[in-house]
Specification:
The protein is an alpha+beta fold and 610 residues long. The chain is built from 16 helices and 28 strands. Helices cover 28% and strands 23% of the residues. Bound molecules: zinc ion. Zinc ion (ZN) binds next to helix 9.
Amino acid sequence: MRAIANLRRLSLFTLAFASSCANPRHTDSVIAQPELRARRLEADVTWLSADEQEGRRAGTQAGLRAGEWIAQRMAELGLEPRGTRGYTQPFEVPKPVEVRPGSAVNGITDAAKVAPLFCATAGEVAGEIAWCGYGIVDASKGWNDFSERIDGKVALIVRGTPPDSVGTQPEAAAATSDAVHESAGWGNSGSLFLKVMTAKRQGALAVLVAPHPSQQSQPLPSFDVGRAAQSVLPALYISHELAAALVPGYDAAISAIDVGAPLAQAPRPTASARVVSNVARERGPATNVLGLLRGADSSRCVVLGAHYDHLGWGGEGSLDSQGGAQIHNGADDNASGTAVVLEVARALAAGPKPDCDVLFALWSGEELGLLGSEHWAKTAALELDSVVANLNLDMVGRAGDGKLAVLGAGSAEPFAAWLAELGPRLGLELDVSLSGQGVGGSDHQTFLKRKRPAVHFFSGLHGDYHKPSDDAERFEAEGAAKVAALALELTRRMAATRELAWVEPPAPTSAQPGQARAGGFRVWFGTVPEYAYDGKGLLLGGTSPGSPAEKAGMLAGDVLVQVGDIAIETIQDFVYALQTYKPGDVVLARFLRDGKTEEVRVTLATREAQ
Ligand SMILES: [Zn+2]
């Protein structure tokens, strides 16, 4: 913490010195001094990743505050405002999901007896109880808890899976009755999301999830804000006591199943339930922050961008195994990229006029699916037309060892040669990939998919990625200062090159710079979803090169509405569908194209095939 105090003093001095000239266009040499540059970057990363900024989640007041601070910085640098409201461009994003009081079953609201599931949607319904046992359909085990549809009913299911032996050799079941845990033998059949979606598919109005009798003393699970899955129906955890009231003989019914008795023999409950689920899934304000530095030629524009939003108090996107609300400070992701963009703006504003306009773009909503840069690209058509290239920085705060991954170098002819020359000159060891894809996505993809040359800087994954521990103390300022020097030089060259023709970058090969396998699904479909789309179905923003979807002829703009026999209303239905099939499965994909319904057969591949 002390170190921080010193550097704060240092940066305040620098800022005072810079501002005392009442003209930030101070001499380039002073600004370029690596030591001073490193201190300035450190000061900005420290401010952006301080607890006061609450992890800068898009859709929150903290996110808006960080946007205001950046706008203020752009004004100090003398950039021209390029938002729709001064420097800012407001747009809407999904807010963090909020559990509100009032969820109930038959008027019981006690949170120890009733609590919404992570995938619950707000709603109030009433219907007869349908007792569905474990609520599992697993063809490989010949197990089906939905022998008949349950249209208009409220499904009541028990957590976990039956003993491994049940369903294969019933007689062996008697021996082992600890059936509560999700045993390996059932694969992910025990996953709650799968059970809820299966009940929905069978016509359920709502789903109630109760504990196995052997776990009745455990408190109801807390709401997991980290899971973005949405089932589009009310879904609640209920206590054992409530389950026993709704399904007389509840314990006996489960013991019977656990020793192999078919569900069909279980007594049918006569109770009905009025279910209220009060989970708020609302949209909130976010802002892109955009400032322009006029160049010699205003018919062309280079976009230097980085996202400034992060994960807030955790939840969706967090890799923190502890769970629970904690500030995800996002020093590396992506206060580092934001600070470098501001530093390059400072240097360019102080130096000779660039050969064309440079737009400094600090995006929000990236962590929610590139929402900010996509919003800009869709609404700033005129400006997009003048864009000749994009340089994107996302996580450049761990380049202390001089190592930096560069993606997208194949999207315009001169990039690779420039990088080969500049890297060693600036003391950087560049791991250059011609492909635009690597680990996870970032805002350069918004430009690549619109066939604009785009380069992406990334100093690699680390143990603090998407965790509360991604703090300013771990920011490697000297490395970032070198990255800033490279970004400055590359921006200048992009601006100076009249013709930067688009080159279709090659598809990614298996080993990508800074690569670490991300994501949990076995099955690969290869759609690139449009996250901002809120209509019914899954709008494709494109397909991944070489993917099953591409091979099946699916195109950007297609709206996927069915995969196999699963209706796709939301992206979660699609996620669910991916979990239901296995690599090699051929599924019928139904989609809307130009208002007409089309069908293709898609052969699913393994993720490893990606
Ligand atoms: Zn990021």
